[in-house]
Each structure stands twice: as C-alpha cells, then as structure tokens.
Amino acid sequence: MAIIAVAGRKGGIGKSTIAGNLAGEFAAMGRSVIVLDADPQHSLADWAAQGEGVLSRCVEKVKGGNAETLRAKARTAEQAADIVLIDTPPGMSDTTYQAALVADLVLLPCGPSPLDLFAVKGVLNLALKARAERRSKRPRIRLVPSRVMLNTNLGRGLFSSLEEMGKKVLPAIGQRVVVAEAATSGLTVCEYAPNSVAHVEFEKLAKAVEKIVAR
Ligand SMILES: Nc1ncnc2c1ncn2[C@@H]1O[C@H](COP(=O)(O)OP(=O)(O)OP(=O)(O)O)[C@@H](O)[C@H]1O
Ligand SMILES: [Mg+2]
C-alpha cells in the first residue's frame, strides 16, 4: 500500500527509533509491515535481534549493492505488506536518494538544536531533488520533531522553526527514557510500555502518517 522512508543527515536523531516504533504501531493497528534496514550499521536489525517482538518478524537487512537494489526490494516488499518502512543511514548517501526515489512519503526527523535544523535542510533538498527527478508529487515530505524536550524553550521553539521550512510538521516524539529502554529489550514502545506517553506519541504519529499515505 505504501512505502515510507525515514531519512536524515544527522546521526542519532531518531531515524531508526521512529522507523521501528512506527512498525510497532502499524502492526498494532492490524497492518502487515516490512521494515527494510538499509543502514550498513544495521541498528534496527540489532534492535530486533534483542527480543522476540514485532521487529524480530518484520525487519530485513538490505545489503549494499547497485543503486537499483533498494528500490527493487522496496517494490517487492510493497506487494507483500500494507506498509513498507525504509530506515536509511545518516548523511546524504545514494541510499537515502534511492529511498526517496521509491517512497510515497519521506519522514525527516529533526531535533531542537540549530545544528539539527541546518542538517534537515540538506536532506530536505535531497528529497526535493528526488521528487523533481520523478516529475511527480511523490515522495510527500514531512518533518517530525524528534527527541524533543517539550519543557524547554528550544523544544517549544522547534515547531515554528520547522514550519518556516515550508513543509508540514507531524506530531512530535519527546525525549523519553522508555523509548531507549524498549530498544534495549528488543521491543517497540507499543509492546514494552503500552500505557506510556511515548506510546501515545508514536500512535499519534502513525495515525498522521496513515492519513497521508491513504490519500
Ligand atoms: N525519543 C527518544 N527518547 C529517548 N531516546 C531516544 C529517542 N529517540 C532515539 N533515542 C535514542 O537515541 C539513540 C539514537 O537513536 P537512533 O538510533 O534512532 O538514531 P538514528 O538517527 O537512527 O542514528 P543513526 O544516524 O546512527 O542511524 C538510540 O540510543 C535511541 O535509543
Ligand atoms: Mg539509525
């Protein structure tokens, strides 16, 4: 039904966390999900291997190869699942560009520091370049405030800074201990802490994403 890529130039901003937890939320919503781990670090596959939850059943490693490999894998996965998520490496690699060439939606997580904002502009331009190459409205592009400390001035200011970039901003994911704990247990937040605020945040994000890809 839909291919969703998570991308960002900055390391550690929450790309894999968002990809993995969206997979958990979509699975809980009854969707079939495949996650393509296209980052050579394979953090998502490592996370999945720690436990026996949703991720252990839906994460597939994509090894480097020619430029077509990722796109071909994503199209095959799309035939088999409702939602295909692609986790990409940090930086502005060819992998990120290939993901943007095949995705219906690209999510760009962004943290609250000015350096995060600077980095997200670079990857936004890369996604726009892919859209120009496709001569289409795809991929749709959305910003996701990530690792936000909502009780700080920087956190509160992030929404307006992101909106100034001219792309829609999706519900934020806060910086929360339970998110890291879930990953350590090999589980998604939905499985590890179903009553947590973090779960509510990821659920909101998944619903917002579903609305976009259903259009
Ligand atoms: N919302 C959050 N709250 C708490 N910890 C988080 C949150 N998001 C991510 N983390 C933690 O921050 C670290 C980096 O997150 P993650 O691996 O998702 O980032 P990334 O952008 O995929 O990094 P990389 O660029 O290296 O692939 C991980 O240890 C993760 O558990
Ligand atoms: Mg990652």
What does it look like?
- The model has no long low-confidence stretch (mean pLDDT 95).
- The longest helix is centred in the middle third of the chain and has 21 residues, at 114-134.
- The protein has a 6-stranded parallel sheet, with helices on both faces.
- The chain starts with a strand and ends with a helix.
- It is globular and about 45 Å long.
- β5, α6 (114-134) and β6 (140-145) form a beta-alpha-beta unit.
- It has one domain (2-214): 3-Layer(aba) Sandwich (Rossmann fold), CATH 3.40.50.
- The relative contact order is 0.19.
- With 215 residues, it is α/β, with parallel strands linked by helices.
- The chain has helices at 15-28, 43-49, 54-58, 68-80, 94-102, 114-134, 153-163, 177-184, 189-192, 197-214; strands at residues 2-6, 33-37, 59-61, 83-87, 105-110, 140-145.
- Adenosine-5'-triphosphate is lined by residues 8, 11-17, 39, 41, 43, 90, 147, 173, 175-176, 179-180, 183.
